[in-house]
Design brief:
There is one protein chain. The chain is an all-alpha fold. It has 2 domains: about 130 residues; about 55 residues. Helix 1 packs across helix 3 and helix 3 packs antiparallel against helix 4. The longest helix has about 55 residues. It is rod-shaped, with a radius of gyration of 48 Å. The mean pLDDT is about 80.
């Protein structure tokens, strides 16, 4: 693929799509900017070389046209002095230079069209590069947001499946709590438990007697 075709394809590329699959979108975008900058340098060099070639072709065409005119004048002079063979030879040289000038003119026109196309591509690439640099932070933020959203959805989908880690952790915690409670109850002294029960009953009776004493006399 030629430089012009490759750069044209790059200009039309969507940067968002280019970084969508990257693990680090910021690094991917920076690399894309570096690649575009390198291509821009190459394209500018190509434009400069094409312009230099066109100018050289123009000088060659002008030289061939002048040579053709000189040979034509020489043929006229030779014919004026009666040297028809010399005039024929001079005209033959004139025609050769005219053909060369015509061929060089075709080359010059082709080069002109190529330069125009290169310049258009150069402007497109410069505009794309400027736009990408300007919107770099926006592109990165959008890409990171999309990646975070995707990871969140993946996590939610994973946790919503039966027997997911969260459910297993809950079951394991409840089992530990039940074991701890059972162990705490089983480890108590029976005599101590009896005293605690007796104290609780005595407290209940005291509070009940206090409530009875506070009733109006007619209700006692």
């Amino acid at each position: 693929m030629g430089l012009l075709q490759r750069l044209g394809k790059l200009v039309r590329a969507n940067v968002n799509a280019a970084i969508a699959q990257a693990e680090d979108p910021e690094q991917a975008l920076d690399q894309a900017l570096m690649d575009m900058q390198d291509d821009l340098v190459q394209l500018r060099q190509a434009v400069a070389q094409a312009i230099a070639t066109q100018k050289r072709t123009e000088r060659q065409r002008e030289a061939a046209a002048r040579a053709a005119e000189d040979w034509y004048q020489r043929a006229q002079q030779l014919l004026n002095v009666g040297d028809e063979p010399g005039a024929r030879s001079a005209l033959s040289q004139c025609h050769g230079q005219q053909d060369a000038a015509a061929h060089l003119q075709e080359q010059w026109e082709t080069q002109r069209d190529t330069i125009a196309q290169l310049r258009n591509t150069l402007r497109d690439l410069e505009a794309k590069l400027l736009e990408t640099r300007t919107k770099r932070d926006l592109y990165v933020a959008r890409a990171r947001s999309a990646m975070a959203t995707q990871r969140m959805h993946d996590t939610l989908n994973y946790l919503s499946r039966p027997n997911n880690p969260l459910e297993r952790l809950e079951s394991w915690t409840m089992e530990l709590e039940a074991r701890a409670q059972l162990s705490q109850t089983a480890g108590r002294d029976p005599l101590e438990q009896a005293f605690q029960t007796l104290e609780s009953d005595q407290r209940l009776e005291r509070d009940l007697e206090q409530l009875k004493a506070r009733r109006p006399p007619e209700l006692r």
